[in-house]
Design goal:
The protein is of the alpha/beta class. The chain has two domains: 193 residues, NAD(P)-binding Rossmann-like Domain (Rossmann fold, 3-Layer(aba) Sandwich); 109 residues, UDP-galactose 4-epimerase, domain 1, CATH 3.90.25. It has ten helices and 14 strands. Helix 1 packs across helix 7, helix 2 packs across helix 4 and helix 6 packs across helix 8. It is globular and about 55 Å long. The chain binds UDP-4-deoxy-4-formamido-beta-L-arabinopyranose. The site of UDP-4-deoxy-4-formamido-beta-L-arabinopyranose has 16 residues, from helix 6 and strand 8.
Length: 321
């Protein structure tokens, strides 16, 4: 598991361990922490480093790895616009190193963390896997390139793979595995509340029922389960390689902020700010393909997602109140 100490990876590590599967974690710990992987062996290395291929080969041989789940990547859209080449080196170069090591050792299965960012500003209300993919920033492009690399390796040396396109991941499966970064809506609202500041709503004049942007929020534990389902599916004949992971239902920014007020019992009065450049008004997954092929459904509602995020936040060092 590469990037297994991060927010999503650590959930998958815990699920695999609970299922009695052997897991070895590779992580550079640049945005994650060792205690999140529990008793799983941890190898600290940066997949984009010069010596990464040899070191990854060693890890794979030593631990008898038969599948790789590849989470490790940089994921900040704004940063990717400011430092595009670094994003290509880290996300595309890092992935080339991982695949290189897999080919050398004969590891033939990969699950890849892709993103709804591959769709850019989709021209439809519900995004299907075959919706046009025109990413609008280097981050989204690196994810689409990652999918192409998998396709090409599949053709060249028989790699079996699944790319999961995550929509808006949130919540916590366990209170100690909450999202420690403050980069997305729910943590950003909690961070503002913690500082005693009003949360910000970026634009309330979008063509949506309440004027705020709509996203498909998927519980991180459901998303983690999707990885297990995909891993199992790699042992059979795959109908498809690429799957959206979402719920098929959207929630607006205003609804998320309201839910945070309800769950926390705090009086949450947001401040409306101008639109953030590059935000699509609505991004909601079609969850049909993954339901039909992998039998996976994400049914955790917004209230539960927010409640678990709140509980994890309150269990951390920056509790509110
Ligand atoms: C959600 C909505 C904001 C903060 C991004 C990346 C995507 C993926 C997930 C990951 C938007 C609004 C936010 C705030 C707000 N990245 N918002 N006030 O932009 O849908 O997706 O993260 O790997 O590639 O683009 O997620 O959580 O940033 O924003 O009003 O304080 O909340 O404008 O409409 P987004 P987000």
């Amino acid at each position: 598991m590469i990037g297994g100490a991060g927010y999503i990876g650590a959930h998958v590590v815990r699920l695999l361990q609970e299922a009695g599967e052997g897991v070895v974690v590779v992580d550079d710990l640049s945005t994650s922490s060792a205690e999140r992987v529990g008793s799983a062996p941890l190898v600290v290395l940066d997949v984009a480093a010069d010596d990464a291929v040899v070191r990854l080969e060693d890890v794979m041989r030593h631990h008898g790895v038969d599948s790789v789940i590849h989470f490790a990547a940089r994921k900040q859209v704004g940063e990717s616009m400011a430092r595009p080449l670094w994003y290509y080196r880290q996300n595309v170069g890092g992935m080339a190193n991982v695949l290189d090591a897999m080919e050398a050792v004969g590891v033939q299965k990969m699950i890849f963390s892709s993103s709804a960012a591959v769709y850019g500003m989709p021209p439809v209300e519900i995004v299907r896997e075959d919706t046009v993919k025109e990413p609008i920033n280097p981050y989204g492009r690196t994810k689409l390139i990652g999918e192409w690399m998998l396709e090409d390796c599949g053709r060249a040396w028989g790699l079996k793979w699944v790319a999961l396109r995550y929509f808006n991941v949130a919540g916590a499966g366990w209170p100690d595995l909450g999202d420690s970064a403050v980069l997305n809506l729910i943590p950003m609202v909690l961070d503002r509340l913690q500082r005693g500041e009003p949360p910000r709503v970026f634009g309330d004049d979008y063509p949506t029922p309440d004027g705020t942007c709509i996203r498909d929020y998927v519980h991180v534990l459901d998303l983690a389960q999707a990885h297990i389902a995909a891993l199992r599916a790699l042992d059979g004949e795959l109908a498809h390689n690429v799957y959206n992971v979402g719920t098929g239902h959207g929630a607006s920014v205003a609804e998320v902020v309201d839910a945070i007020g309800r769950v926390s019992g705090l009086d949450v009065v947001p401040e409306v700010e101008p639109r953030r450049p590059g935000d699509p008004p609505q991004l909601v997954a079609s969850a049909d393909r993954i339901g039909e092929d992998l039998g996976f459904r994400s049914e955790t509602g917004l209230g539960e997602i927010v409640a678990s995020a709140w509980e994890a936040w309150q269990a951390g060092p920056r509790r509110i109140g």
